[in-house]
Model the fold of this input.
Amino acid sequence: MPSMNGRPLVVGISGASGAIYGLHLLQALRRLEIPAYLVMTEAARKTFAVEMGRSPDEMEHLATRAFAPDDFAAPIASGSFPTRGMIVAPCSIKSLSAIANSFADNLLVRAADVTLKEGRPLLLMVRETPLHLGHLRLMVRAAEMGAILFPPVPALYQHPSSLEAMVDATVGRMLARLGIENDLYRPWGTES
Done:
């Protein structure tokens, strides 16, 4: 069994707006030399192309391994495959709904379901606003199952100088929540 340092972090990217978060997460994992096992939904590929003006293949090249959303034979579809956990960034309401209802109709949702059933951390960067009661109930349901809801709320006390700095700070906080040390954000009370 690989050591914790050798275990990959599963990265799911859904079709919600905010593809830049997934991109910066993969870039950070590469810099930190942490294996990233990626699954992007078809909607995520389209959103990335629209929002970033780049080919979604760039995301796959940043990952250690990338899997198609219909590849249920991928190692991340099995609980016997050891991982550090999973981050879905961004997480659409559709993906949240599927995760909260254990409706594993694609590899992203199956990997999230496996993460929960194995008691590993699952961070969901839910990207929607405003939220109606149905969205809130889905978030509660996911949290009751063990998911960590982590919407991309910027820490403005850091006085971010750019969109990239705001994104990096959120990515850094997500990684820190998993116990992965990084310098992408400045904890409250520390000097700049």
Notes: The mean pLDDT is 95. Residues 163-177 form the longest helix (15 residues).
